Amino acid sequence: MTTLPIPADPTALPQADIGVIGLAVMGENLILNMANHGFTVAAFNRTVSKVSHFTEGRARGLSIIGANTLEELVGLLRRPRKVMLMVKAGRPVEEFIEHLRPLLEPGDILIDGGNSHPSDTQRRMQDLAKDGLLYVGTGVSGGEEGALTGPSIMPGGSPAAWPEIRPIFQAIAAKVADGTPCCDWVGEGGAGHFVKTVHNGIEYADMQMIAEAYHLLRDVGGLSAPEAADVFREWNAGELDSYLIEITADILGKTDDVTGQPLVDVILDTAGQKGTGKWTSVGALDAGAPAMTITQAVYARYMSALKTERVAASAVLPGPAARPAPDRATLVEQVRRALYASKIAAYAQGFQLMRMTAQESGWTLDYGSIARMWRGGCIIRAALLGTISDAFAAQAELPNLLLSPPFVAAISEHQQAWREVIALAALHGVPVPAFSSALAYYDSYRAARLPANLLQAQRDYFGAHTYERTDGPRGEFHHTNWTGRGGETASTTYNA
Q: Is the pTM of this model over 0.85?
């Protein structure tokens, strides 16, 4: 570690509460948010010209100080120094850590506010601890507007850092109606970035389910985009109240300036992604958590990318025979119910994944607190999260949201429509992978007996993988010589 000399210029003496590196959209808006809440912020960007452009433009007159070098940035910070990285995940984060490490001292705090993989955050925290440095990996959700006016912030990492960063983070975070900030400490290591990853996985599922609802309204119900906009606007006034439903109504109601058509109708049907949905799916596979709707939402984006192949296939592969359109008002109500039930199942999968991963990682996660953090500022903010928070307040160790009485009642009320919509979609040839997988998750979770007994018999038949018996204790394994030629030797691996 090296100690920086006191600068000759008195204006460069430590005076900033926090330093932020990265002046892209999120970085700039978070800095402005901090300044608007009374904090002095030192700003740096690898392309230094952006610093002066920012300080002389949007940041003019605010408590924001530009730095032309990392040494200058660090010299501007009060101790313990707090440096927040708002740069692309991966190598850029590693490079800034390498450059900053010799400039900082024990007790100083490095914060990664990007979408880093939780395992990278865990590794960096442990490595920097060797030099006495504190490391925080924090999820930030809300996009450009949220960063400026109040995002949802999910910090985790070195626990000793939380008292130091808490005043800043909770000040700039979104607030719900009772004034509670949408920010609290998540847990050690990669817990903060993991919770943000799951947030994004649920976001993928939510967006796909909304897209499927729109697809059904359009292709089965015959609704135009403006008519569908009115439906989503009405839905947003009820139990589906959420940011994503709100913006869907706005999108469907937007007219293209060039063609005069609904803008959504001239947007190519290929969806991009940045990888966090995939991380959620891989994390679910690693944890043995059945996050099937989240994974189907990722696959749906992959399928959308095969545009050229799909267009060619549409001319060759037959679909179902034409069917009469159902009653429009009935369809709209059934789709609404199916969407809400599917959302419950998707959130249940996300929280189940968090619980299973936390057990494996040794984290203590407060699921009610996480739901509260998501009630405002973030992309998946929704009225539903209030019910989820209440569910965990009533039963902190709730094993699955589907078992919470309000959700038992909601699914009971909506499941018939849910099933009929999925059947209707199949009969009309409209793909609804998220709706279908959500229902499959629900039906699988409520099944006292699944056909896995046959799967396990097959595994024992060809691989001697053994099985447990219904008339014996759990943990007692058996092997059958199915063909009479296999002998009595059994495999030693069995995972259930």
A: yes
